Amino acid sequence: ADEILKVRDLKTRFFTEEGQVNAVEGVSFDVRDGEVYGIVGESGSGKSVTALSLIDLIESPGRVTGGEVWYRNAELADEFREKIPEGVDGDFVDIRRLPKGVRRSLRGPSFSMIFQDPMSSFNPSLTVGEQIAEAVEVQRRARANPRRTRSRTQGYGLGSLIVDSLLPSRDYVNDESMDRAVELLEQVGIPDPAERADEYPHQFSGGMLQRAMIAQALAGEPDVLVADEPTTALDVTIQAQILNLLRDLQDQEGMTVVMITHDLGVIARMCDRVGVMYAGEVVERGTLEDVFENPVHPYTQGLLGSIPDLVDPAPRLQPIEGNVPSLIDSEMDDRCYFADRCPKAMEDCLTRIPEMDTDGTEHRVRCVLANQEYDESQALENGHFTAEE
Ligand code: SF4
Ligand code: MG
């Protein structure tokens, strides 16, 4: 399949009192039409920030400061080919170069996002049906009158990614949008959807609310659904059901999914290709088989521990001793960010940041060992854990 997203050297900074935090430090990857692309890493690795950066949801004091997010959309490419020539390449537009209003209008019909905590995606004082109906109606009006339509779901309706609350009433909810909301609830496997639509978020179980959030995210018929730890808060049985639902939606609707998770089991079960993040960088990426069965980066090897086995029902991240390095700019050296924890660290690793090796295949690794054999005699004494414990 063709690429739908091409992320190049994405950089996101947070400007805090302690200093500039380089949360995303030059991330590149491609997502293909109709695939499930996984981004995996420990907490603090920059995976959620990467997801938010993709769809322009970084808030102050954070800012995307560099890189490109190429999105395939022939209509937009035609619209901006002359106005912003450097932001158009064939059928692709660089989202970062589009005017703010246009970027915003992509939320819903182009990109939608679901989160770990569905409660925070819903307004507790409106029924679930009303909120999904509103998302449907906002999207319909946005199509009719792009870049004008506002929703009042700000702060709640992140599932539909529509912001700027202006309308005070239930104006957006009509019979047609409510019918569609019920359809969506049915599509995500909610029994008695017409009755459930009239209930409030607190009347839903966690799993049901997660389904409702997915329904809300589907209201705009997005090209790409970004799912950030969508099942982390759920118990195992419900997790499996939600993952199956996402997989079915991807199969049946041809939706592209970017799955952000710390859970290797989720990656193994869902994803076609995967990028492993560490300290704001993608350190290894490739097909599921490349990364799980033939991991090259010592960090990936460490994560997979003794169970790089795709049939293992629930491989989990293995704890790796040591801490994720500080991402404060002034404290980041020109060396492999994993060196303090790496059992294979050599002199070479302490003097430069390894490039993402491009060996002509899809399997890419940001490590000096990508193109040289590991030689134990080169390893630093106490190569890992040089940091004070
Ligand atoms: Fe380990 Fe060196 Fe590779 Fe970094 S570059 S992961 S320190 S071997
Ligand atoms: Mg996160």
UniProtKB/TrEMBL annotation:
EC number(s) on file: 7.2.2.11
Catalytic activity: Ni(2+)(out) + ATP + H2O = Ni(2+)(in) + ADP + phosphate + H(+)
Cell membrane in keyword set: yes
EC class: translocase
Domain ABC transporter: 5-304
Location within or outside the cell: Cell membrane
CC annotations in GO: plasma membrane
Matching CDD domains: ABC_NikE_OppD_transporters (cd03257)
Membrane topology label: Peripheral membrane protein
Record GO terms (molecular function): ABC-type nickel transporter activity; ATP binding; ATP hydrolysis activity
Transmembrane segments: none
Record note on quaternary structure: The complex is composed of two ATP-binding proteins (NikD and NikE), two transmembrane proteins (NikB and NikC) and a solute-binding protein (NikA).
Name of the protein: Nickel import system ATP-binding protein NikD
